[in-house]
Structures are given as structure tokens and as C-alpha cells.
Amino acid sequence: MLTFVTPEQALHAPADEFFRGQRVPCLENPTRARFVEDALRAHGHALRPPTVDSAPLLAQVHAPRYLDFLRGAWDEWLALDAANAQLQPFPSVWPVRTLRSDVEPANFVARLGLYSMDNGSPMAAGTWSAAKAAADAAASAAQALLAGERAVFCATRPPGHHAGPDFMGGYCFINNAAVAAQALRNGGAARVALLDVDYHHGNGTQAIFYERADVLFASIHGDPRTEYPFYLGHADETGAGAGQGFNLNLPLPAGSTAAVWFDALEHALARIARHGADALVVSLGLDTFAGDPISTFQLQADDFTRLGQRLAQAGLPTAFILEGGYAAAELGHNAAQVLQGFES
Ligand code: SP5
Ligand code: ZN
To answer: Where, if anywhere, are coiled coils annotated (predicted)?
Structure first.
């Protein structure tokens, strides 16, 4: 399968994240992409750099002031103190209920909070370069589908599905899947289906398309009553305005088995078939794997082959975008299983 990879991913390498008040090594790290690249290369897939500049698309799915902030964030951080080069910025204050988000504070950390949903999106010197390259890959994947390719994989990081119109979150900065969906729409696909199979609800993607009927969002994920991102992903979120009925959330209890998960997949695919989509974008989180360190679903490597097979049966031009998956050493194999199943 044609696969886009980005060397810039290695430049997004924040050392630590927070966990229970302590700093711990960041789970979303460059080794993830390396494991995926190595496995796909070993399976004979063609690895290519992106060919499309996603800049015009970014402005269609994210707010200009958020993109400006993200592009300049590291330089602003350094401008506070040259010694910050060895440190990591984290937000410490957020504009929650009753507080104003329309006026941008001048203070850098205050703006970091304004543009964040959590403190779980550590940044580094190369975060913008890496995130932009991943978005370029998503745009390139869409272009390849529009040119007649059957399926494309983006073996990219950082992931994107928690990033909303104007905020980062959950290791995500730019919503790559949304970029791919928008690029497909711009290129002539009248209807696009976006299926999110990451363990965590794709709150950012849902938010971006919530009032749109042209992009159907369907997601299978851990019940937000107990699982991150907690504040979105319930079954009663069905879309709004023109988008009413074009958002399908299938939350499953923590610990769900593969049997339960594949029942939900059938439900999602039935809705997608009814949408009459011209193309499918899959937010491919592999943190549904039983061995994932932060998730609880029970899928095994063979289940990823089955997932690939079942998605191929949908019969749509398909762009796979890597999202989460933190059992890094098994990530490459699990990704390769999806591609192998799809092509079998
Ligand atoms: C794209 C994606 O899968 N994002 C998931 C974000 C989940 N963030 C909350 C969990 C953070 C736990 N990290 C602490 C690791 C301790 N070993
Ligand atoms: Zn996830």
C-alpha cells in the first residue's frame, strides 16, 4: 500500500508528560513511527514523503489564531528565557466556564492554556514541523485517492484526532484526519465518511464536523464516563444543525472484547454505507490492542487483520491515518496487519 512517512516526525520529541503529578517519559514518541516504518518496509510497502502542502487545508479545519500560535509557540517559549530550550512548556490555566476565550492574553502560558484542552500535549522544538508534515501527508493521501489509488496509509505522528478547531489535546496538534477529509471534499468527493477506531473518542474531529452533513463522523471508543477524553464521545451526540444525524458515537465499556468491538464496527459500517460516501478516512488508532499500556480493549494482532479485511469490503477509496497506539514494539506489526488484511 502506498504509505506516506515524514522524517520531520523525529523532531517532535518532547521528553516528558505528566502522569499523576509526576513527569514520566512521553509515550507518544519517535520510536512509534520508526517501528511502523520498519515493519511496513519489511512487508514491501512503498514508503514516500508527502507531495502536497496542506497550508490551505489547515485554514479550513483550524482557526487562524490557533495556527498562528502553534507555528510560533516554541520561539515564544524561547523568547521568555533562553534557558527554556532545555525545558518544556505546559499550560497551567484554562478558560473554562464563565471565563473569556475571545480575548487573547499576551502571556504565553495563558495562551497555551487557551489553545489546549489538557496538559497532555507536550511540545518540543520541532512540534510545528512534525505536525505540519503529518498534515501534508494526510493531504497527499487524499490527493492519491482522488487520482485513483485504492488505499493509502499515513504512518505519521504526532496524531491528530483530539485536536479541535482551535485547541491541541491528547498528543494532537493538527487534525490530520480532518485535513484528509476536507481535501477529499475539495477535490470533488461529495460525501466523505470518517471512521475513528482509536481507543479514545476523536473529540477534535467530531467538533470540526459536528454541524456538517458532508462529512459523516463515526467513532468506536472507550466510554468517556471512564476513559479519556471524558468530556465528549457519548451516544447522544448525534450532530447539530445541518449536521444533525451525521455524528455516530459508539462508546463501549472499558475492557470490551474483540467480539463486542466488531459488533460496533458493523454498526458503524452500516451507517457509513447509508451515507453513500465517495471516500473513507480511517483514524487508525491501534491503542485498542490488548497490550496497550494506557487502554483496556482486548484486540489481538489477528483482529487487526480482520479489521483491514472488513474495511476493504466497504469498497471505498480509503485513507488510513495513524492516531494512537502506545505498545510501540508491537505497533509496526499491528499496523502491517491492517494493511495486509485490507489487501488480502
Ligand atoms: C491520540 C491518542 O491516543 N491520545 C491519547 C491521549 C491520552 N491521554 C491521557 C492518558 C495519558 C497517560 N499517560 C501517562 C503514561 C504513564 N505511563
Ligand atoms: Zn488513543
So the answer is: none
Residue 123 C-alpha cell reads as 511540545
- Amino acid 118: pLDDT: 98
Q: Is 2 exposed, middle or buried (0-12, 13-18, 19+ CB in 10 A)?
A: middle
Task: Identify the residues whose C-beta falls under 6 Å from ligand 1.
Answer: 17, 19, 24, 27, 120, 159, 162, 170-172, 198, 200, 228, 285, 287, 294, 323-324
Query: DSSP assignment of 104-147, as one string?
Result: PPSSHHHHHHHTBSSS-----TTHHHHHHHHHHHHHHHHHHHHT
**Rounded distance from Cα 120 to ligand 1 centre (Å):** 7
Q: What ipTM is given for this predicted complex?
A: 0.96
Orientation of helix 127-146 relative to helix 64-80, angle to 10°? 150
**In 241-327, alpha helices (H):** 258-275, 301-313
Residue 343, C-alpha cell as written in the block: 489487501
What CA–CA distance (Å, rounded) separates 198 from 44?
25
Q: In 3-state terms, what secondary structure has residue 58? A: helix
The dihedral formed by the CA atoms of 84, 157, 228 and 218, expressed in degrees to the nearest 10: 150
Closest CA to 37 of 305, 322, 324: 322
Say what angle helices 176-186 and 127-146 make with each other, to 10 degrees: 40
Strands 47-48 and 247-252: unpaired
pLDDT digits (tens, 9 = 90+) for 226-243: 999 999 999 999 999 999
Whole-number Å distance between alpha carbons of 52 and 72:
22
> Which residues of the chain, if any, have pLDDT below 70?
none
Residue 198 Cα to ligand 2 midpoint, Å, equals: 5
Domains annotated on the chain, with CATH: 2-343 (3.40.800.20)
CA end-to-end distance (rounded Å), the chain: 11
